[in-house]
Amino acid sequence: MIFLWAFIVAGLFCLVAQLILDNTKLTPGHITSMFTVLGAILGFFGVYDKLIKLAGGGASTIISNFGYLLYKGGIEGYQAKGILGIFTGILVNGGAAIVGAVVFAAILTIFFNPKD
Predict the structure, then answer these.
(1) Are 103 and 110 in contact (CB under 8 A)?
(2) Pick from 5, 28, 65, 68: CA 20 to 30 A from residue 47's CA?
(3) Whole-number Å distance between alpha carbons of 1 and 7
(4) What is the pLDDT of residues 34-59, one digit of tens each?
(5) In 3-state terms, what secondary structure has residue 86?
(6) End-to-end Cα separation, the chain, in angstroms
(7) Are 37 and 45 a contacting pair, CB within 8 Å?
(8) Where are the domains of the chain?
(9) Cα–Cα distance between 90 and 77 in angstroms, integer?
(10) pLDDT tens readout for residues 4-37
(11) 64 with 55: CB under 8 angstroms?
């Protein structure tokens, strides 16, 4: 059943993003930023935790999860070290996602050439 929920949740996020892309003049970069912020907002209200429990990988592999991780890291850092802990907490939780994106992008550039 979790596979079905993962498909539905990730599909709904993708559907909304595609509708925004098709019906506005926003670029994919704008939409990516919006979904990152949306993940942090949903984390703030406690909704994203429930989405991850419901959909598993369907909620934890999309870009909004990155915003949720940044928010969660900032809160954990603040609770552990105070105001300056916000910045270190963000780096601890978001670091793996950032490094993963850079490494995979570097690997993909070996196999693919950009179009003119």
Answers:
(1) no
(2) 28
(3) 10
(4) 999 999 999 999 999 999 999 998 99
(5) helix
(6) 44
(7) no
(8) 2-111
(9) 7
(10) 999 999 999 999 999 999 999 999 999 999 999 9
(11) no
